[in-house]
Amino acid sequence: MTGLCHEALFYDSDVAYCDAVLPFLRDGLANGDALIAAVRADKLALLRDALGADATHVTFIDRDEWYRRPAVTIVGWRDQLARAQDRGHGRARIVGEVGFGGVERHRAWTRYESAINALLADAPAWIVCPYDVRALPGQVLADARRTHPLVRDPGRRDSPGYRPPATLLHELPEDLPPVTGAPLADLILHDVTELGAVRGTVRAAAAGWPADPLDDLLLVTTEIAVNGLRHGSGERRLRVWRADDTVVCEMSDDGPGLSDPLAGYGPPPDGSRGGRGLWIVRQLCDGVAVTTGTGGTSVRVAMTAG
């Protein structure tokens, strides 16, 4: 097997979970594969107990810490795979149980499950993603059949509903971070000489924030403003909202937007002179949405202090 193998595992009991995951890990151990499991705390304990001494060969990760921001998780997997290769493993077997959480996270993490098919396409990795059919909403389960080329339910087979990332990411646009009421600031921008005023406006909106998250907020706002000024067209507009400790910034223009639905999910290639801004934004923000419609394109980001 070469390149990525990406499967969804649908399970309805701990017994069904172990019947699929334990042979997967034990076969990997016998083959000399690196073994990584980013799973729920209860599943982490279950696997450790069932594997016994073999558990020492598995890199266990708390999924609640791992699946916080999609772009950060993708960087994390690349780092884990590089470490595995440095240790001499030809391939990694990964159990990755995404923390879908509340409904506000479902679309972002469904898009992540789709994006990794392209971003890790050449990676020597076999990823099995467990889906608890007792706990997850029907839409999340249905989407898993669209984001995984293979499914186990319990038999292993091609997923007839699978949609390639370039198709699904267009069909499933990102949810806009919510805002309430009129913006605190509404600026029409003309060129980069106005970036100082942009940062002053955002700093005022984030009054009371600690220094570190404020620096991150100023950086991402600068990045979306520069991208809009350089790559957008027509009227460039920056709007800022605040609700409690969350600040939302939106840069919009009249242009057609991004042609690459994967933009910003991975770092730009080595030596590239562009493409880093949206990647930085996706690394730092709690919510990101790039949307395009008849009215133009907008990039809306949300960050919460603390």
Detailed description of the structure:
It is a single chain. Helix 5 links the parallel strand 4 and strand 5 (125-132). The N and C termini lie far apart (44 Å). Helices cover 41% and strands 24% of the residues. With 306 residues, it is of the alpha/beta class. It has a 7-stranded mixed sheet with strand order 3-2-4-5-1-6-7, sandwiched between helices. The chain has a 5-stranded antiparallel sheet with strand order 8-9-10-12-11, covered by helices on one side. It contains 10 helices and 12 strands.
In short:
The strands form two sheets. Strands 3-2-4-5-1-6-7 form a seven-stranded mixed beta sheet, with helices on both faces. The protein is an alpha/beta fold and 306 residues long. The model has no long low-confidence stretch (mean pLDDT 94).
Mean pLDDT: 94
Parts with pLDDT < 50 across at least 5 consecutive residues:
none
Strand content: 15-25%
The helix content, as a percent range, equals 40-55%
Radius of gyration: 21 Å
Structural class: alpha/beta
- The oligomerization state is single chain
Shape label = elongated
Distance between the termini: 44 Å
Largest sheet: number of strands, sense, barrel closure: 7 strands, mixed
**Number of helical segments with 4 or more residues:** 10
Widest beta sheet: strand line-up: 3-2-4-5-1-6-7
Number of beta-strand segments: 12
* Helix/strand order, N-terminal first: EHEHEHHEHEHEEHEHHEEHEE
Domain Histidine kinase/HSP90-like ATPase: 192-301
Keywords: Kinase, Serine/threonine-protein kinase, Transferase
Domain MEDS: 6-149
Protein name: Anti-sigma regulatory factor (Ser/Thr protein kinase)
